Protein 1
Amino acid sequence: MKIDKLEKTGFDKNNIINYGNMFLVGNGHLGYRGTYEEYTKEQMVSLNVVGLYDKYKKSWRESINMPNPFKVLVKCLDESFSILENEPVYNYQSLDLEHALFYRKTEYKELTIESERFIPFIDQNLILFKYTITANDKDLSLNIKLGTDTDIYEINGPHFRTKKLLHRGKKIEFRGRTNELRRVSEINQYIFNAKEIEYDNGMFSFNLELKENGKYDIYCFSTIIENGDLDIDIPKYLVSSYKRIKNAHFKDLENKWKIAHIELKGDEHAQFALNYSIYHMLILGNERFETSIPARGVSGQVYKGAIFWDTEIFMVPFFTLTNPKVARSLLKYRINTLKGALAKAKEYGYDGAFYAWESQDTGLEACSKYNITDRKTGKPIRTYFNEKQIHISADIVYAFDKYVQVTSDHSILDDGGLDVMKEVAKFFISYSKLDKGKYHINDCIGPDEYHERVDDEAFTTYLAKYAVDTCIKYMDDIDLKNKFKEFSENIYLPKLNDYNIIEQFKGYYKKEDVKVEDVRLRLSDENDYWGAEASKTRVIKQADVIALLVLLNNQFNKDVFKANFDFYYPYTEHGSSLSSSMYSIIASLVGYSDIAYDMFIKSATIDLDGKKKEWAGGIYIGGTHPASNAGSYLSVVFGFAGLILKDDGYTLNPNLPDKIESLKFKFIFNNKIQNICINRDNTYVITEEDL
Ligand code: IFM
């Protein structure tokens, strides 16, 4: 297995934010953006913590960023060696995808700066940094400023109503109290040699005489303490600790890759993009936390650090197949937040569990009623994602069902999974309206968010029925079963028309028949919110009926896949990064292998090509795109390989794109590793081995 590094040379200020996302490191609980040590909050330096949230006044409640533990500024006389002020002779940065290690090298005539950082999984709340200065061709007298920057980058902050810095020797301790009165601290242990050290407000300052070709190393071990425990025992780290933890981290990552890696022979571009996508999954899956994975992963506070359907529909399947323990902890998050979902249902007058469209630690709704602002006027736009995107509850049941199917781990049902299912079933029954003997799910929003408050929405109704049927499948309670069966047998499902097409919602066909480019021309700016114009037309934001066909593929045949693909493809903007992987999968299943390939590449390169949407109206939506990363994995496994999961096993129906000579991957099914090898002619060999 060879996994190339992500590498960039040169420096362009315009790339700073993008590279911050691209070169992210994390361990599913902490994330540190791919920024440089001289940067500040202006360049969006951020140490993001998943599962910690705070609300400042009337702003959106969002995840917390901690102080930057590793700020370094180097000066020689009056010359600053910050890349923001001083153009280097050579600049290089890399991300070792195999080992989740960030590295940078910036060369000036007089000196070279190198740094690296990583966030181990083995030690949950630790980040390690190393910084090296080399004097190039003469002795140098340097001044170094090094320490903790408490001027934090925040979107809806400030989140720390009190900030205190304590300093003992080379240790700096930040103690913060959030607006929600949570105590969080950060203990930063620095290792460096210096004679006279001054300290001011989180920063050490000292002079350094560096001989020609001499090297000077600085280390930092930063520990985040989330429970306010001030007596926590933190080891005293040494230089040898750095090497030891780094070695263990490398081995850990190598083990993770063993199952997750996919070989796409003959296509280096696709291979690299897929490796990069899988990297993002690996730095997000942490079985020891039940805080789930936010839509922007650990790259920052965009989307409030909240968890969406992205996790259950895109990411959970990746982990179910490659690391079921992580999948289980993601599902546990939905069990733990059931209370919030019950409260939300009650608030809106429904029974059961109405999961939050944007969910945080409590499971209460974090999605604002005005989730988008008008780009020109700055005025908030009323959206109904929160109240009407009810498919989220069914998506969660879907993820539970697939997990059980693949792992045979029924204990998740006893641990609360069945309660989730029952409450979700009750919710859909209470949401529906009986009309002429049929239960209709009206006034909702499907994955296509441009058409709000529609009736008989295909994705939602099919998934609602699936959720209720899944609950019936697993439960014993006869009375409840009969009640659920009555609903399931009589729910109204949009039917296939004479051409095998499923109408996305009642009245969709009557919408103005224009295509994506027509709507684009109606916008005054590409960053305008598309919903305003698209809602009047057939143009949709993202896979909706197509997503339904992917998820419930057992219920439809190839003719239906093809008819709906042909119909909806020209109307789909792919305005969400969740769209293209769904189209890729269906394109593979109908034999459109070129489109399948293009859509896969689109999904896999979302964080590499710099072309993604950064604004929705006036709201910044940049960051990494884990659902799209997971989607590229799914495009290969469910699309190119045609994996179909069934209650009694699985089947493969491969359709390799022309550029790919062979495809090899592993997944875990029923506690056994399945080794799949697909040849150019779509013949394949499966071998099985013990875990
Ligand atoms: O969950 C998605 C949604 O489908 C489209 N807008 C962005 C959300 C978060 O990724």
Protein 2
Amino acid sequence: MLLSRRLCLLLVALVWAMPVAAKAARGAAQAGIATAHPLATRAGEEILAAGGNAFDAAVAISAALAVVEPTASGLGGGAFWLLHEAKSGRQILVDAREVAPGAASHDMYLDAQGQPRAGVTLNGPLAAGIPGAPAGLVHLARRYGRLPLAKTLAPAIRYAEEGVEVTRAMELGLRFRAADARGSPAFAALYLPGGKPVVAGDVLRFPDLARTLRRLAGAGRAGFYEGPVAQQLVDGVRAAGGIWTLDDLARYAVIERQPLRTGYRGMTIVSAPPPSSGGVAFANVFNILGGYDLAGLATVDQKHLTIEAMRRAYRDRAIYLGDPAFVTMPLDRLLSPFYAAGQRTSILLDRATPSIQLSGLLAEAGEGTNTTHFSVLDPRGNRVAGTMSINTWFGSAFIAPGTGVILNNEMDDFSIKTGVANGFNLIGAEANSIAPGKRMLSSMSPTFLESGRGVAILGTPGGSRIISMVLIAAQAWADGADARQMVALKRYHHQYFPDAVVYEDGAFTPEEQAGLEAKGHELELSSRSYGNMQVVTWDRATGRVEAASDPRGAGDVTVY
Ligand code: GLY
């Protein structure tokens, strides 16, 4: 039952991501925005036009997405925003990831026999971590922005009050979450009026969410983490079997982290450190690949080596990575070129390494996905790559009455038991086990690519596949691809377990496919396209800015 629901969630994500014509804009311009929804792009434009910087635009876009794309992110979730501040050259990862509630415990999702309880990490308030997104928005605005929150949250409040059209993605998502949503009368009242899911073209208004946004705009973090909203959240969660407390909300803290940097073929990949697994995985993969003369190899061998590097990076993710406040990770070793050299000795050019032969973990299976990403560059050169999530479609499908806030189901990103797969089929170990106040490991990977050519700002939703999507796009940028080509690339992915290469139709030529199979790779054609990448690039020589939104999604871009 659980597995089939997870599969359904994945199907929704993939159906929604069907190919359409690539959307891109280019021109001799200085600012660029790419987001997953036209109204979020308009919100960013409005704020730049009002004199805001990229950080103000990031606040406006993130808040707008919480209203217009409620399947993917929102005030009830978390975020990583990767910032580049032009005046100082400083780069910062603003970590607004959710944390486990204070009453959470190591085995809270296991039954008396030590087996996972079905559905509890995905549905309802017990699946929800303490949200970080609202605190992150306030942090971004106050520390880096030029405009008050009342201004930057205004577009989101307007959308919530005036109403937004239900998208096809929302309609499809609801079809599969309807049964879960009935456990939340506030969610059902909004999205299943009279017991019937809303459909594309309907207009939804969000008065409760607008009120919560106004409180955030007026009182800053206290408007969400204290006072009436906090009380409504805790009352709603606890009445439905959750474990949040007012103290959990009051204690939530945003953390600024140093991004991780990896050099590869003349470019620097700047991305998120733990509790994201993205930056470490990129270092792992690109340090391995940097030891080969890829350009001198046949494309089938290039792809084989990339898959083998992915396999090893995801193995290390499963074993070593977690919240740095709780686990000691061997990052010096994992990030070292000598470690990559050792990894290369285990890679054969003519043969796939069965994952089972790498020391590591075994897995049980499951599936599901959703998140969102945007990229912004302002005329001063400030940049933001923002990836935000409530985890799977509509998060936990639970709204605490009166708040309008859909709670995340990010607790599923913890390893609830060593070797048991989560909704993305990812396995993990003790490093990512549950503890009170701990951040769950993430794959969200907002990224900058920097080289003599210029800059690319990118990221995507897609759960465990985020990392492989971004790294394939980074390889393409190193090969000269532009923004539009990066978002349209056909994708392939290996995550150690399951031991299979999932690929989009067209990712491999028939010859490459035959060559990879001859080396022993199990290839699994993805029934649909996946991901929703948003890219903004700046060309150093010409100053030209380009922006592109994934042709698989319904996003929009602007350049001016
Ligand atoms: N919830 C998806 C991720 O953070 O990886």
